[in-house]
Amino acid sequence: MPGRVHVTWMITVTMMMLMLLGILAMTRHAPDSPRPRPAPFQAEPLLSKVFIAISHDGSLPTTRNPDPLPWDTPVTLYAVAYTPAGGGTYFCGDADAPATFPVRALIDGREVALHRWQSAQGWAKLNFEWRTIQPNTDAQYTGVQYLPKKFPRTARMWQDPDDGYSWKRQGITPLYQELPLHGPEAGAWKTDLNWLMPANRMPKSMPVQYANVMRYRVKVSFAHQGRNSALLTPGSDTITKGYGIANAVTRVAWRRPYASDIPSNEQLLQYAGANAGCACIYGGTDVQAEHFIGMDCSHLFISAWRKFGNHRDPYTNAQGLYNRAVKGRYQMVLNGVPASRVPRRLVHVGDILLLKSAGSKGYEHSFFYLGGGTGAYINTTDGEYSVHFNQWDTRGTNYRVAGNTIKFDWVGYSNDTISVIRLK
After folding, report:
1. What are 345-362's pLDDT values in tens digits?
2. Domain edges within the chain
């Protein structure tokens, strides 16, 4: 009998311990409470800085600019205000903000708690003005000068063994314009959700072609102890000398949805599509292309190729792309055929077409083929100089599909030559 009691007692103790361990495990792995923590002070603090935190697909908001996102990815921008009071405190949303507002964020790589601004307790009313930043595309910028011209001491030598040229690049600074987001297209966030903005909002004056890469700025104005103050995130005046708008400016880019029967072409074209809206910079630098500042025709291809995964492929010009195909680094689909007689069955969506004008010693222009008579990817057009999806050539004439032949027969350019290359 005593033995049975002992066994029963041991079983009871064991079950209690297992239950206790289960409770501890559930507590340890329970998700954080969605309720924001109260501010560590009662008096209104003086704000000293504002950030924009980016959240996509419900991710933790972060101040880091994301890599190009899939086209249909929902993105929300949150304004995060900071005060050094309380050892450093961050705010996002008012006390009555929706439960969907974040309670934590990554600010400059560090995860922090987000508190609610106490407007109902007499703290200052914060006024928000959201803006989008776009390059001035009324002019084509030049960032390259060819030998044997005289160069300023600040110019850097760049020599690419593939393109046959040695040139010095002098970085330039494209001009930018800030467009306020206001009016009917602003929607509910203007009055009710002014701490946040859906990143697909655009001014009515902005063409849809600019939707692929967008930059944003927020201004927070308020009165504190009788003095008016305003805080701004980095914007059009935040410039990296010699290159253009700084990477510190909030930026979101989406990969444009294109389909091709060649998987590598499809992915390459989608990454290239993320550059729509960038300025056209003839002979720009790798920094400008890598950070969506601006590029020329060949840099459009190389920047997408590098984002696609080949980070070691150096930048070059259209002739350099051709030379690499001759050397076997890219696939040569067609080599030097008349522009008016390009075999349709050999050209696929996402192929890169190289153009050499009659009498020219080398290839001068490169662009993506989109197929189906929809035009092709280019970076300049009449009156506007940017990466976009309009007519494929600056000379104003579309190509025509005639049976099994694609005719690139511009008026006065019937003797042009086309080569077609493709990634291996």
Report:
1. 888 888 998 988 888 889
2. 1-30, 49-134+175-239+246-252, 263-422
